[in-house]
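Please check the following for our workbook:

***
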Amino acid sequence: MVKVFPFIFILLWSSAFITTKPIIDNSDPFSALTFRFSIVAIGFFLFSIYSKQKILINKKNFIESFFSGVLFHGFYLGGVFYSISKGMPTGIAALIVTLQPILTNALSGPILNEKVSIKRWIGVLLGFVGATLVLGLDIGSEIPIAGLVATIIALIAITSSTIWQKKLSNNLPLSVSNMYQAIGGFTFHLLVIIFFAKPYIDFSQTFLIAMSHQIFLVSFGAFTILMYLIKNNSASKTVSIFFLIPATSALMAWLFLNESLTNLDLLGFLITTIGVYIATRD
């Protein structure tokens, strides 16, 4: 079962980009994320109680998990949601944050003392080339500066969060760690609303369906799988699978949103898949 976790993660994480647009069409990005992580935190709390996990943790573990949530659920998701709300195409946003494995590979050596082989670098670079073919050559609209800046912030945040999470020394149960990370994300977005944003949510059927997908399948499902993979694999090896996400998102957009998919896109799929295979087979 564990061997299929990366494939399940790719499908669930990619689908999040498809359901982000319906959410921000019915709310401002930070209100949506505040609502999402309030539910996620409660969900992980209840599961931790049900599974008889120790909820009260020491200060060090709390700060580590909380700060990880601020980076991942706060700056990363906040950046992605905000960029799309400003008109950034979801596929291009997915492509930019897919640069994460290159940054993680560059930093995991000096920070985590991981050995990143030439073979893995080749796989990472092939993955980036493939992802660029799928999405990078399809840029036909003007990219908003605010959206671009927000996406770059999201890229830096998810890279930092991955390395930070791998560097953590605590052995907290996933449900407890995820609960405090969700609290960190909730707190971040709540503060953004209080000081900077005008809160707005239209609890339409479309919003509720899309939000339910992101809460249950992405936050409870994909994120838990990601934390498991980071904990049990090298950081650079884990994030290499992210190169499959833009291509998978493009395929989902073709299937469910009737977006076009060219022969060049299909070539990108193939190159990306080969790159990920090489990067994760050290």
User: Anything to note?
Assistant: The CA atoms of residues 123 and 278 lie 5 Å apart. The mean pLDDT is 83.
